[in-house]
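Write out this protein's structure.
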Amino acid sequence: MRFTSRSLAAVVAALIPIGALGAAGAGAALAAPGGPATAAGQPAFSARTILSGTALSHAFAAPGGTHHEHLSSPDDITRFGHELFAAFQNGVGPQGQASPSGNTDSTVVEFTTGGHVVRQWDLHGKCDGLTADPQAGVVIATVNEDLHSSLYTIAPGARPARQVQHYTYREALPHHGGTDAISIYHGEIFISASAPGTTGPAAPDAAYPAVYRVGLCGCDHVATVHPLFYDEATASVANAGSARGTTTHLALTDPDSNEVVPASAARFGGDFMVTSQGDQQQIFVRGAAGRHPGLSVLNLSRPVDDTAWPASRPGAIFATSTATGTVVMVTGPFRPGTEFAAVTPCDASSAPATCPAPPAYPVNYLGTVNPWSGHVSAVTVTGAALQPQGMLFVSW
């Protein structure tokens, strides 16, 4: 996400988030700013590292010749066929700026659920969004979340020279920002319009799309964009309480991750969802593939990034842990339909631009989201260190 300067008053205000009380209700637990609020008697889950960037490397051209370095900062994760794919950002900046080592490439790694690496590809820019389009036979990746965005397709089954294809946008993106997460919804490509207002008027802005419908033209390798809905669209309040069902106007400043909610979810099954991370909101779009989609907004007690809904009890959440440079497998007593989320305290709009170290602000942690109240509760995880960013549930 995009960080901006914040005042000391905003930091102090963050100590007791106003939204947390409204979303969680009178009995909700409060902790340090954005800190874990763990439900009493909650069962523990266990984490095991299956892939580490320090065990992988790539070569890149920089002043002085070819350099080699370990992979770092994994972010988004997806599944294509029987394999998993994770994007390692390798320190590249949000507009595609070179890392301190001079690298300008992210690396997408294909691996098994047991952590065996199959192959990898370098993409120019910072890879933020990653998803699989089984019908097209490709993995799709977006690069550069703040500005200078483009996207790539990776066809693992194609000849090596044809596996990676680069697409640029036919026009300047009208929200003056970058692109982030990707989902395939009823055969359409939906991409979050991240960091709105980087070079234009500050967000929110009624003219800024929050999500794009994207079309790819293989003939000239260009991508076209059409708005799904806008940052100041009208939505129905989804939180339980007296305001539920009333109409509100969104004011999104940070559209980020997105998902297609599985039919097994406790609520919003079949909807397309986009998380506005800094705004602590999830927007659910009913009938997103139709002409007149309906929007609902769930206000959250904590900022979250990626989400995952277990579809069965046997299975695992695979999470990228950006800070530790690892991919971690989480197992435990999953209840189908529960929404798990990567909770990101330092990504709240009220958080300081340079986030203080714990315990002032805790690191990312695994949580669950109550789909009626919007309250976020911490999940107890033992074993490997886990600071989740991207997440994916895989059924056994």
